[in-house]
Amino acid sequence: MIYLLSDTWFLFNKYVRITLRMPMWALFTIIQPLIWLLIFGQLFKNMASIPGFPSGRYMDFFLPGAVIMTVLFGTSWSGVSLLREINFGTVDKMLVTPVSRISIVMSRVIHSAFTVIIQCIIILIVALIFGVRLSGFGGALLSLVVVFLLAAGFSGISNGLAIWIKREEPLVVMGNMMTLPLMFFSSAMVPKNFMPEWIKIITMINPIDYAVEAIRTFYTGAVMSGAVLMEVVFLILFAVAAISWATEMFINQAE
Amino acid sequence: MIKTDSLTKTYSSGTKALDNLTIHVKEGEVFGFLGPNGAGKSTAIKILTTLSIPTSGSAWVSGYSVLTDAVKVRHSIGYVAQETGVDYFLSGRENLVLQGRMYRMDKKDIYHRVEELLGLFDLKGSADELVSTYSGGMRRKLDIATALIHNPRILFLDEPTLGLDPHSRSSLWNYIRMLNKDLKVTIFLTTHYLDEADKLSHRIGILHKGSIKIIDTPEALKDNIKGDSVNLSLNSGVKERAISILKGNTVVKDILCEDSHVRVYVNNGSEAIPGLMKLLNEHGIEISSLTISRPTLDDVYLKYSGVSFKEGESSEGSNPWWAQWAKKGWGKNWKGGEGEWKQEGSEGSEDGKDNDSETPSPLPSPLRGEGWVRGGFSDENKDWQKWQQGSDNQDNQEWKKWMKEDAATAAEQPAGDSWEKQKEAWNTEKGKDEKDEGKNGDNKKEEKNGDNNKEEAWKKWSNASDWEKWGKGGGKG
């Protein structure tokens, strides 16, 4: 168990170092979510005047959506770098050591979760500057927990898919195929009461929708309701399942 | 140290990569696994390093089963894959430290070991630079260093010099020898370079289509090929007479001739030469030059796999810098049967020139081979053989020197007992060695100057400080 933690820590450390050594990448990681927030905020601005829209300003409504978009776009690619590591022989080099296999997956997942958390913090700051009202510091902090869970889940899926497909191109396509529709099948951009019935049904099994709803609740201040608890539990299950699957794929890749 | 028992691996695609592979690698030896791309070398190494699971059969590494004791196996081995596994965006030192962490070594041990390894592989100067700035040779060295971080007794090297330039290649060979000789690391090496297997390994296993064709010392393998060829250059006009005289001799098994050049096949070249020379002299035939060729590993490969080395290669795999040259040469113009080369077509006319020009330069073999191609000889296949033969003499000497030193050190140290025994096992036929000595001696008589030059040059090349210079200066291309 101690090995599990230390292995994960040292590998996580490595990925952080590598990330910091790509300044261009770090820069765009920061700029990208702002673009989502500002462009989408402007594009759907007038939606708020439609009768029945839940909040006064579209940006208030969309902030959780922007956070979620950042999570999805930030993590659904994390398998690509795993593939690169496999092709470079780095993974084999890890696998011949006694290092915990779960740690290899965990460190990658945690690393990509942490990168999106940093992005989300930046989004929150910018949103505050633009006048979005948050209920409080606690809510914002709790929303980052949700971000972590969702990011870990999707990063796990992406890593699992990477080992399964073993090619970059289809992996990228599958990543988009997975995240984009799921995002539209959630209340990230459009409030639920605007949705057709069949989409509403899909949202009930969509982890993204659970995350959006939870984050929205945290931002508006109604913190500890039963619904939120259920949403968080669902996300925990989702993350655990995704990481377990990825680890399973990883261990079985030796056939 | 390493044992496999009818190891078989069938991939889900249906390819049978390994077919009943049974080998036994002894402690302290360098075991060379020779075969073309696609012969199953990497699959074997992946199973032995616990990266892959066999379909059937079993394997033990340092006494632990790779199937049930994988973690213990992992602790006892180091593995250098075909692809450089080091992280490009970490510095050399960070790579080493991380690898130490992966083996759960504690900080202090890692620190000392890292310093030691950086010194050992002459990487101290660039230890804190990112690996992405390293040259191919340096990366390879770092890769080997990381594999040694936990002081393993066995090192697996999968195509260690693939894609390296000749300088880094021979430099790396020296490091590998040093690891085996000084640090007593058992080395399991795969390669598809014939000269590499020949130069580095104590024993060679020839792998063809997933199964071992034969395992023996390089020398014994080459001795199995019946016959040496004695190549005579004669003054024109006396050739027919010479042939008729030689044909009457009982030691001569076969004669092939082109232009003024005669190739005489005999069982033992070094023993036959004095007799042949005497015979020809008695009849007043003057020999302008004489060389003797030992069979090469290519002949060996041909004999045991039924196909020439190049033909045995499957199409997949990389295209290194020498590919073009290799394609031109091997197995195209010559058709082999039972270790004897039969000529096809009429390209043989260059043969005489080849032999005359045979004063091998001290350059590493691949470079030399290339030089010959550029020299414009029409039949590079012969150049290839020649290259092997040329390097043979100098290698035999070097090798023997090395073996002797080993034996000496082993005798001194009681711990080296098993080492000594193996040495005897590898050199089962001591006489063979002496024979070689004789041959080299004969050769020296004929090309005294050439040989002296060779030896000097070799010394210069194998001088440690020179390697260092390459490691540093040549490294950062």
What can you see in these coordinates?
The complex is a heterodimer of chains A (255) and B (477). Chain A has 255 residues and is an all-alpha fold. Helices cover 77% and strands 0% of the residues of chain A. Chain A has eleven helices and no strands. The mean pLDDT of chain A is 87. By secondary structure, chain B is of the alpha+beta class. Chain B has helices at residues 41-48, 70-76, 92-102, 107-120, 136-147, 166-182, 194-200, 218-224, 239-247, 269-282, 297-305, 323-329, 351-356, 365-374, 380-412, 417-426, 430-446, 448-462, 464-472, and strands at 2-10, 16-21, 24-25, 30-34, 56-61, 64-65, 77-80, 154-158, 186-191, 203-208, 211-216, 228-234, 252-258, 261-266, 287-293, 334-337, 340-343. In chain B, the strands form four sheets. A six-stranded mixed beta sheet of chain B has the order 7-8-9-4-10-11, with helices on both faces. Classes of the chains: A mainly alpha (255), B alpha+beta (477). The A-B interface holds A 3, 6-7, 10-11, 14, 17-18, 21-22, 87-90, 92-99, 254-255 and B 11-12, 49-53, 71, 74-75, 77-79, 81-90, 94, 98-99, 101-104, 130, 146-147.
Summary of the model, kept short:
The complex is a heterodimer of chains A (255) and B (477). Chain A has helices at residues 2-20, 23-43, 58-75, 78-87, 90-95, 101-129, 137-165, 168-184, 197-203, 207-220, 226-252. With 255 residues, chain A is mostly helical.
**Strand portion of chain B:** 15-25%
- SSE class of chain B: alpha+beta
Protein chain pair with the most extensive contact, residues per chain: A-B, 24 and 33 residues
Q: Biggest sheet of chain B: strands, sense, closure?
A: 6 strands, mixed
Overall CATH class of the domain at 2-221 in chain B = Alpha Beta
